[in-house]
Amino acid sequence: QVQLVESGGGLVQAGGSLRLSCAASGRTFSSYAMGWFRQAPGKEREFVAATSGTGRYTYYGDSAKGRFTISRDNAKNTVYLQMNSLKPEATAVYYCAANRWWGYTVVHDPGKYVYWGQGTQVTVSS
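Predicted structure:
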């Protein structure tokens, strides 16, 4: 069992930055690929980014490429999402999630993740 707790959300002006954190319980954190998803009101959950167990490999969704960076610190059982040049359309609840597998199709599919955090709200004002 892995418990995930996100933090770092808040209100930011367009063009600003936020860094989200996701702290995981348990001793097997490095064995999981970690992903970030977001969900805006009335919309489906959207893939943002994912990182492999070692942190060596990453994938990004189209909305995140060039502006967001995912990283992890396995010694701290924490995964991060650095978000720069934020736009109002980034407003959503952001979730971190753990996946036992790695690969393009697997990490893009929210149904493949076995553990989820409770989410943290990010609001970008124009």
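Summary: The longest strand covers residues 92-99.
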